[in-house]
Amino acid sequence: MFIDTHAHIQMPEFDADRDEVLARAKAAGIGLMITVGFHLEASRQAVEAAQRYPQVYASVGVHPHDAKHYDNRADETLRDLSKSQKVVAIGEAGLDFYRDRSPRPAQTEAFRRQIRLAKERDLPLIVHDRDAHPETLQLLMEEQAEAVVLHCFSGDLAMAEEAWARGYYTSIAGPVTYPRNEALREVVRKARVDRLVLETDCPYLPPQAFRGQRNEPGHILHTAHEVARLLGMPLDEVGRITTENARRLFRLSL
Ligand SMILES: [Zn+2]
What we know:
alpha/beta; globular
């Protein structure tokens, strides 16, 4: 069995066939998934999806793209949402210096406040970091973040080792199957297996076999196969270990 630790099945991309997508995921062995908020409305929808589907859990947060809208009211709304049943994390929150859709000082502030909220609520934090590796590690350190997963990990081995040393988890997504992503494969080969979890980030980032198409939770098997090959481990062992890690991190009971 597998857990998709980062999906966005609440998005309109799945409105036409969400039940079928979830049925395919179940048939593929994806026992549970976490659907992740990226602004207030998407966080509300994530909570609704979790209330509707037994195998779906939710995370609530504001992505760095929307950081410019992160005010006291947003902080309060997230706090309220985080108290809903089946919310298991805060995020995705972090820094995106690739697209810079919010000014960097606003990204930093929204990230700090969500790190604090995660600690206050005693929930793990799902971190988005794109082209902001040193700044992300620095802020997590300054705010003394506790339970952390670096989602769709894109750093190098040195960064991964720093993250593992701090007790953070690294989440591996479809890009590990991309021909040019040797750097990520190197991270997986040397990984601390007790700090690895898997995700799809669907509808984004399909594995190589589905490039150009909508991604969905069932496709996590392609990522898992590649991780198994890199670790020299049977697929079901990868499933067992990453499921155990996700259960520990998000405190999921099965
Ligand atoms: Zn995401």
